[in-house]
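ENTRY TYPE: paired fold submission
RECORD: A
CONTENT: sequence, then structure tokens
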Amino acid sequence: MDIPNTKPYWTGKESKYIADALNSNQVSGDGHYTELVANFIQDNFNSGKVFMTTSGTHALEMAAILIGLKPGDEVIMPSFTFPSTACSIMLRGAKPIFAEVLENTLNIDPEDLQRKITAKTRAVIPVHYAGIGCEMDKIMEIAEKNELYVIEDAAQAVNAKYKGKFLGTWGHFGCYSFHGTKNYTSGEGGALLINLNNDKIIQKAEAVWQKGTNRAQFLRGDVDKYNWVDVGSSYTPSDLLMAVLFAQLSDMQNITDKRKSVYSRYQSQLSKYEEQGRLRMLRIPEDCESNYHLFCVIFKNEITRDKVKYELSKRCITATIHYLPLHSSPMGRKLGYCPDELKLTEMVSKCLLRLPLYPGLTEPEVEYVITSFSEVIEALEDV
């Protein structure tokens, strides 16, 4: 067997919707399928206004523009995340302030978030790791007391919940990704959810989304021609990509159920190694409903992690590491951070291994991964 770490799952409806978009001559941004997908998210997740974007990165960038970030501002976020989280605010001249994560979920620690707030803090970006929700009630309470914006980086958390409420709808802004590695994909794509009841921000978002123009007002008939009215960029995705995404979202629960099946199998079969103290697994808290974005194990040290990864690769199983901490990266060092500032984040990065997880994994393939993993673990004396 040759088992990749992840692979897109196709519902069978993607080609039909792409052909429909082509036949309708709607291939550029802000078309029929863009509207269908935006309405689907708004209706099914009970969100605010939805703007489909070319990526999750661009959703974060739009949010940074909309809150008016400027040089000298600070934004608190975990270091255990993808560079897009930090780059989105640095493009506005703001500085990322990195906070520690919680051991059980690898999500931002609300207590460390509280400690990192200064007079310069403008916002916080909680990142929902692996489709498991951050403690959003605590984060929103802290943000309200300190008059901070909350921008949820829910790139991995589409269709996941915290305390019965969809992730991406807790904060003032929510950012989704539909990259080829995500649960529901269009290859590239994202969404910005604006959960504020603020017409001025919505109007500004329309301009930012449409290259700084008032095209949205023109299409509604509010103005007789559209013009350049604000800063902006080309954030609207091709309708061909949104046709693919509409097929994916239409089959969202089936995709989630398939992922859950693989996840649950791993958890039940490998839990004995956690009981033996050889590794630990992330926990989905009772308050969370996961979308089962990934399954990972955390070893005691980097050497063991790398040995297991190598031995699985010899069996044609692609197990992968994950984020390299932003604070200790070359760019993080330029910002003045040191590796030992966030010890848990550093440890997790060195010891975490992700096992293959995607809806198309067959029963024999899942069994092969579990058997191979078990053989590797039991052969290592130092695990």
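RECORD: B
CONTENT: sequence, then structure tokens
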Amino acid sequence: MQESELIAKYNISIESLKAEQLKLSKEITLKDSQDFSNVERIAAVENIIVMNQIISVVIVCDKEFNIIEQQYFLDKLRFPYLNEFRSYRELPTMVEAVNKLNESPDLVLIRGEGIMHPRLGIASHFSLSTGLPTIGISDSIFEGSEVSKEDILRDKKKVGRILQSKEKSNPLYISPGNKISIESSYNLVKNMIKLPHKLPEPLHLAHKYAREVRDELKL
């Protein structure tokens, strides 16, 4: 089904969503909200979509990447896939999964964009919904973004950095979601790479757990 048909079917006002994204984006801060060199609880969220259902998992690990806690939430999808509006589809389940944690993490890694998004990336939207500092890690960049050496630019403004985490693999695009700076985001993710894995280790662990949950639920 084409995007225009989905918008009509679900009675979605794209202009209203854009306005909401722009309004929320004004609440984003790129100042480090804490000393991230001393984070004790690092979380990562991963989503798997099967037909009309979504599984959101969250793992929390320590600085040595030992898993402290893991939770998941299963729900029905209530919003279609629309480019640039992913958070309206996946965010509710992600928040529910994180709300099941016994203790809040110091930092959350999200598969997706932070401030690299033209208005409000899923990592930023998640942070504004939970109050937790977030970093967005993406495999691609939006049309309209520019690359200058290791920097990602939008409208001539630096919005992230490129990380070649694994030789001969496509790079990762790192952008802060909220409550953390671009440089801290980049350095933290870089230090969380544990070869031969391309993703930072918490996200690798979350991806592995998500597949285990999917298999357990037989979806």
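NOTES ON RECORD B: The chain has six helices and nine strands. The first helix runs from residue 3 to 9.
STATUS: closed
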